[in-house]
TrEMBL record:
Pfam families, per the entry: DLH
SUPFAM superfamilies: alpha/beta-Hydrolases (SSF53474)
Highest taxon of source: Bacteria
Protein name: Carboxymethylenebutenolidase
Residue ranges constituting the Dienelactone hydrolase domain according to the UniProt record: 29-245
Molecular function, one GO term: hydrolase activity
């Protein structure tokens, strides 16, 4: 078991271990965060464009601090597993290069495999949600669409899913409870597009959609070029409350309404 790295902090006795998820063409390396008590419903945390950055590790620790078991797969493993911190001078062009080279369909399949793997962990009680940021928000939405059985998440949280403008009119609407966050001042996703995304995704079952005034793209990322402190705080608080209602951390609190597919 790894010791507490400098990349993240927790107020409780959260632990992190290195894991490997087997898929037909290889092995996905991942980080597994367990809450202090050792048991808690599962969340697969889907990385942003920069990979498993310190920010993503911290958000995983934040969720584990609250009682969830969090799996963070390295979805760039097929192309070298690069991780960028976002504040490096060439981080954005390098991240865009990684994004362009990473196979979309295979990555969606990887996320579903991670859901099934985490669901099989007896310490998560058979329940797994997805939570994704930016690029990961779009991937998480795609992985939740038109899927059944153990690979189907029980709930979805998507932060400013960057692929949603191209996805929502092409794939079936997600049919698991979902929460979506967008900034109203997003320079990459115009607010008119956000409004269209809202119109489409709310056709699904049990959907909540929040847009945050003054917040740009990646507003939850702590880097100064992205961060909007008020939107980040308010959205994260809303995410916790929503998860507690739709995907409670205790493994004996299984929502009676769970439906796959």
């Amino acid at each position: 078991m790894s010791t507490l790295p400098r990349a993240w902090e927790a107020t409780t006795a959260v632990t992190m271990t290195d894991e490997n998820i087997e898929v037909p063409d290889g092995t996905i390396p991942a980080k597994l965060f367990r809450p202090e008590g050792g048991t808690g419903a599962g969340i697969v945390l889907v990385q942003e464009i920069f990979g498993i950055s310190n920010y993503i590790l911290q958000r995983a620790a934040d969720l584990a601090d609250k009682g969830w078991t969090v799996l963070v797969p390295n979805l760039y493993w097929r192309i070298g597993g690069d991780v960028l911190q976002g504040d490096e001078p060439d981080a954005m062009p390098r991240a865009m290069d990684l994004l362009g080279r990473n196979p979309w369909d295979d990555t969606v399949a990887d996320i579903r495999a991670c859901i099934a793997s985490l669901r099989a962990d007896e310490k998560v009680g058979g329940r797994v949600a997805l939570l994704g940021f930016c690029h990961g928000g779009g991937l998480a939405y795609a992985a939740s669409s038109d899927v059944e059985g153990d690979e189907c998440p029980d709930a979805l949280v998507s932060y400013y899913g960057s692929a949603l403008p191209d996805l929502v009119d092409k794939i079936p609407v997600v049919d698991v409870p979902s929460l979506h966050h967008f900034g109203e001042a997003d320079k990459y996703i115009p607010f008119s597009t956000v409004q269209h995304i809202h119109e489409v995704v709310t056709r699904g079952r049990d959907v909540e959609f929040s847009s945050w005034p003054g917040a740009g793209h990646a507003f939850d990322n702590p880097l100064p070029i992205f961060h909007h402190a008020q939107a980040s705080e308010d959205a994260w608080r809303e995410t916790y409350v929503w998860l507690l209602e739709h995907h409670p951390d205790e493994i004996d609190r299984v929502p009676a309404s769970r439906t796959l597919g």
